[in-house]
Structure formats: C-alpha cells, structure tokens
Specification:
Blueprint: H1 3-13, H2 20-60, E1 64-68, E2 74-75, H3 78-85, E3 90-105, E4 108-117, H4 120-123, E5 131-134, E6 139-140, E7 143-149, H5 150-156, E8 167-172, E9 186-197, E10 206-210, H6 211-218, E11 224-225, E12 227-232, H7 238-249, E13 253-257, H8 258-261, H9 263-301, H10 303-311, H11 316-352, H12 373-399
Parallel strand pairs: 4-10, 7-9
Antiparallel strand pairs: 1-12, 1-13, 2-11, 3-4, 3-8, 3-12, 5-9, 6-7, 7-10, 8-9
Helix pairs in contact: 1-11, 2-9, 2-11, 2-12, 9-11, 9-12, 11-12
Length: 402
C-alpha cells in the first residue's frame, strides 16, 4: 500500500464535514479544470483556423511556385519546361504571367490582379468547387474569356449571362508617357466573362485570363513569365521535391511551397496562439495558487497528525510526499476533467458545429477546430509543473514540523 497516497486521499475525500479548507480545495480543482478546458478548446480553434487557411489556399494556389529572386519576371524556355515536366514528382506545370491592371466593364472600372494562365490551369480543377456562376472557360473557338472573382463582379456589376458587354483590360505601355488622356498609353484587351468564383476576400480582385492575352498586355516576350506553378503527384514528399526543383532551376529562381508563400499569415496565427496560451496558462497558475493556500492551511490544521506520524517513525520524505500527493490529487483531478471536457467540446464542435461564427459574410458557418495531441500533452505537462511548484513549499513546510 502506498501510505502517502492513502493518507492524501483520506484528507481530500474522506472528511466527515466540509471545512473552509475543503471548499477551497474544491474551488482550486474547479479553477484548474476550467482553465485546462479553455486552453484545450482555444488551442484547437487556432489549429482549426490554420487548417482552414490551408484549405483556402489549396483552392487557388499551387503546391509549388517557381519565381525570380529579384524582379517580377524571368525567361522560361521550352527546354526548362520540358525538363521540369519530365520529373516523376510533377503532375501539372502551369506558366503564369501576373500583374496589376485596370478593368473596365460598361461604365465601371476598378484595379484588378490579372493572372494569365495556360490551358493546364483548368486541368488542376481547383476552382471547380468555388464557382458561383457561369463556367470554367478561358478560350473557345478563338474567343478569349475571363473568369472573375466575386469582388470584381460586384465592383463592376458584371453579368456572365451578358455576352455582348466585354470586360476591357488596360495595362500601361512601357516607354510611353503615362496619361489617362493618351489612348496610346495603354495596351488593351477585350474579354468575354465566362464565370465568377469566390474563395476568400484576399482573392476578390483576381481576374483569370489566357496566358497569351496577359503576355500581350504586359508586353512580355513569348517565353517570359512571372512564375511557374507546379502540382505534385499524390504522396510526393514536398521537401524532397522542392530541393530537386531548386537544383534544376538554379540560384536565380526560388522554389516555394504553398506554406512558404503564406508564411506571414501562419506566423501571425502561431504568435496569437502562443499569446493566448500564455494568458490561459496564467489563469491556470492563478487557480493553482489556491492549491498553495489550501495546502498551507491544511498543514496548519494537521499539525498534530504530522507530529504523530513523526512519533510513529515517519520520515520527512514521507510527510512531504503526503502533501505533494494531496496537491496532485486536487490539480490532476481538475486537469483530467478539464482535458476530457475540452476534448468532448472540440469533437462535438467538429461534428456538429454548434458554436456559430456569428457573421453573415463568413465562408464557414461554425468555428473550425482541430485537436492536436501535442497541445493536449503540453497542457498536461503545464498542469504538472504548476502543481509541483504550488505544492512543494507547503509540503516542505510540513516536513519541517517537529
């Protein structure tokens, strides 16, 4: 029989009457439980937000993007493209020419992000689930089409049904004096709007067009692009594929994964997650301070019992372990209950989404959550460390009673 654990359980569970110390211990247990539950839930929400952003980016961006280290365009000769396409890791390679431009439709105009892509872009099938109206079409019967984002459609009041009103794209000519009154200062292309897509507000100013149209507008040479977008085959190791691609394209170009392109956003989410975790950790620490006070008062209350134990031959180590175990019972009971309740809440939210976002414009109805075992382990370790810190001094004080 573990004598310290038995005595500690008697002190906590087997009291004939509930004293102030008993209620303070229960309050400490509830405080640790609520703080632990909140920590698990909030960390899971941040994990869910990070995963949600990954899914959003996956709808529009490629697995790998090759872009110049300096400047915004580079030469991509057919020899380089063929060599990349022959790699077993690559499923699709899309050449892209992208820049800001001015869009006009009927009497409206707005600045857009024109993205010219070749025919392989639609084979990626990324926008299939994001289409609101019309169809995915860039070129048919020698007619060039444009696929516009919901924000552009709203700014210009575009109707994909109206095939008679073209979307006019203007881009300043290089070497010409810039003037809105000079008709020769801009390259112009007219496109028929074939569809409207919506992903997220950061993509609301995009217009997708054929690569030939974008190159003509920007004044690019036939092999000139701003980036190469690559879709990897399922099961491909991203780090190994990135290193392989980097070795082929050389030091003048940089190969980035989808996460690399959005590293600032992920860093912001992780910093916010860290700050919130620290805040909730302080709440757990404050709740655990009650353990310190309840154990300190329990030591005073059980002073005669401690003297009897010493008289019966108990060592200072045994007495210390009694009160350390008492603190562990209080804290771990609350922590385990908090962990279980936090996991249950996250699982129910993931399955049923009963906590709503509360905003009409949100792309999802309920808060996203994703349980991560490392968060649960970290929370458990935090509670254990706090328990040891708050229980050690009362236990040490009890061990010194003569």
């Amino acid at each position: 029989m573990n004598l310290p654990a038995w005595i500690a359980r008697r002190y906590f569970f087997s009291r004939k009457k509930r004293s102030f110390i008993s209620w303070l211990s229960i309050l400490s247990m509830l405080g640790v439980g609520v703080g632990t539950m909140a920590l698990v839930v909030v960390l899971s929400v941040f994990n869910g937000m990070e995963e949600l952003n990954r899914q959003i980016f996956k709808t529009f961006e490629a697995d790998m993007t090759i872009s110049p280290r300096q400047g915004k365009r580079f030469m991509a000769p057919p020899a380089l493209l063929n060599r990349l396409r022959q790699l077993p890791e690559i499923s699709l390679l899309t050449t892209v020419a992208q820049d800001n431009a001015l869009a006009r439709y009927a009497s409206g105009q707005t600045v857009v992000r024109l993205k010219g892509v070749d025919s392989t872009y639609l084979h990626r099938q990324q926008l299939d689930s994001a289409m609101l109206e019309g169809k995915l079409l860039l070129n048919e019967d020698n007619i060039n089409y444009a696929i516009v984002a919901e924000g552009v459609r709203n700014d210009l009041s575009i109707s994909p049904v109206d095939i008679l009103t073209p979307l006019e794209i203007l881009y300043p000519q290089s070497g010409q004096a810039f003037s809105v009154l000079n008709p020769d200062a801009f390259n112009r292309e007219r496109l028929t709007v074939s569809g409207v897509f919506f992903i997220e507000s950061r993509y609301d100013n995009f217009v997708l067009a054929p690569l030939t149209v974008a190159r003509a507008l920007f004044g690019y040479q036939p092999d000139e692009v701003t980036s190469l977008e690559i879709q990897l085959r399922p099961g491909t190791d991203e780090n190994q594929a990135r290193q392989t691609l980097q070795n082929i394209v050389g030091d003048q170009l940089i190969v980035q994964t989808r996460d690399d392109l959005n590293t600032d956003l992920y860093r912001t989410i992780r910093i916010e997650k860290l700050l919130v975790a620290l805040t909730l950790s302080f709440i757990i620490l404050v709740a655990s301070i009650n353990i310190f006070f309840s154990l300190s008062m329990l030591v005073v209350e059980k002073r005669e019992d401690i003297r009897i134990l010493f008289a019966l031959g108990a060592t200072t180590g045994l007495v210390r372990r009694i009160f350390l175990t008492e603190g562990a019972i209080i804290a771990l009971t609350g922590a385990i209950a908090g962990l279980v309740l936090g996991v249950v809440i996250c699982v129910m939210q993931e399955q049923y989404g009963f906590i709503r976002m509360g905003t009409v414009s949100s792309i999802i109805d309920a808060y996203p959550v994703r349980l991560d075992s490392s968060d649960i382990i970290l929370t458990g370790v935090l509670v254990i460390v706090v328990t040891i810190l708050t229980s050690w001094f009362p236990a040490q004080r009890a061990a010194k009673i003569q």
